[in-house]
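Researcher: For the record, we're logging two predictions in this thread. I'll number them. Prediction 1 follows.
Model: Prediction 1, sequence and structure:
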Amino acid sequence: MKNKIFIFFIAIALILSVGSVVANENIDDGLSVDDEIDEIQEVGVNNQVQEDILASDESEEDLSYSDDVDEIIGSPAYVNNGKVTNRYADGVIYEATFYDSEGYVLKDTSVFCGLDSKEFGYTGVTDSNGVAKFAIPAKIGNHKLYLISAYNIDNPVIDDINIFKVLTGNKNIKMYYDGGNTYSVRVYGDDGKPVSAGEKVTFYLENKKYTRSTDKNGYAKFKITSKPGIYQIGALYKDYAVLNTVLVKPVLKQLTTFKNKVVKPKIKFKVKFLGKNKKNKKIKVKFNKKTYKAKTNKKGIATFKLKTPKKVGYYKVVVSYKKCKISATYAKYYA
């Protein structure tokens, strides 16, 4: 009987021992499975994040999200460096795009553009695309712009710009009629260098426009052939324009002064040509319904012998050279 009881306890001990081993094996297997589950979950999360990023990239345009949000001193880039969109005599128009802290465009918001300083500059308001325009008057040369919104007051985005004139060399002109003078401009490209040959420039004079092309040095020229008068003349290249004044003076000068008493059958009448290349200029004189012609000598003087009118009265003499005309009135009396 004692032997049977002893054997029974031995059997129970063996069963418990085997159960313990099985339990331990099951526990070990359970930990391993959990670890694998964690791994799988972690991989799944990473894949999901990647999918979310790809989905975000595909929908950037719809979300107006910046596709090149950089980091500035550990912070998101709240401003994309802008560009000069127009230049004029005393400065530029500059545009930049502003973003909030999440990288979305900053709409309908007041922003600031400092000129060579964070303290001095110009304010603007962003549009629905986050773009703000600034009219910046500045001297010729290199300048720094400090672009600031409420999101980057401590870390402004800094952009370098070069102020230069797109059209140069233009100036007011004083000239004699038919002097062969030209109004010229030199055109500069976005790189600040003279453009090559073939760039189109439009000139405006007397409510008419004329197109000329630049030469290899970037110059465009327009010859002025207007009759005497004062005019405004302009040049336009793309959106850049300049405006000047042209004074065209009469090229003829009357040298003879008529006297009150004229008794000779012929009146000696002289005119001087004031422009360049004075010799052999064809001058006309209209007097008492008759036209007289003469050429200038090397000093630019043309001499006419006008027939004296028979009647007492006032007569007008008109001197002309191409489109240039001058006139004078004199009184004639018999002795």
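Researcher: Logged. Prediction 2.
Model: Prediction 2, sequence and structure:
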Amino acid sequence: MRAAVIDKPHAASLVETERPEAGPGEVLIRIAYVGLCGSDLEILHGTSAYLVDGRAAFPHRFGHEWVGTVEEFGTGVTGLRQGEVVTGSTMIPCQSCRSCASGRRNLCTELREVGLYGWTGAAAEYLVMPRHALVPFGPETERPRPEHVLVEPLVTILEAVDAADPRPGDRILVVGAGTMGSLAAAVLARYPVTLDIAEPGTVGHLPPGSYRERFTRTDEAPTGYDIVVECSGAPGTLNAALDRLRPGGLCLLVGVPAQTETVEPGRIALDGIRIVGVRHGVDHYARAVALVDEVGAGLVDRVVPLAEVAHAFEVLQLGRTRPKVVLGVG
């Protein structure tokens, strides 16, 4: 079968490899679309923490945002039909550690992540997944669509929104209008809150009425927000986000900075500010599947054939006007 790999820093190519087989409790998926994101770029650039700490190595088969159809079942698999449209969790929890047993599967201590470390990626014609990590779209979805790859980032936004617990009248600032920020804005626009955006680049993909004001820099936004959702991971943004909060406000960290940031702990204590890190929303896939067509509309820039994977990364870095670049596989 064909598969895309990152061979070494700044080089991606198409290779031929053996088609996998589904073992007991596993499902063979025919991949239709794979989304590219910042984590994939970090691997391409050779700067990813997964490479630095040895969890991943070159050549690396990436792809953790995907959608496809059920091809074959291993023994013991129930609840799916051949040809059904499915997606799957990036995080594959062990289901037996203390965190999993307590219902916090996103904090699993024996975690493997599809296309990042511990489990091969979806940038190929076929992928094997454990049945427990798969979510069907339902009989009303007859075929995969490029927007369906957005289920994976959407689950993290749903985890963030649950942590925010927005109340009527809350003032919320979303920092960044990439994939995460755009999804955050789309979800939060469904609540009776006042929503602003801080984004230096284009926001033309955001639907009219989904936000009140747009600021090109975080520090241009006023102070007094109840909640700031930091989705950019841009250098220096954390302190600017904290400066926008009222006393007792909440800063949700969705974006992952590539460098160390310094905050003043006394200020956090005296102002009663809460800073909450948001880890993958592994338990929100069913909700995300139900929402993705609504909140993901207009976020895909283009679909690039799998054979042109190197060009797809070029588009992701330099040539897009909407957040998401997608590889077309099947």
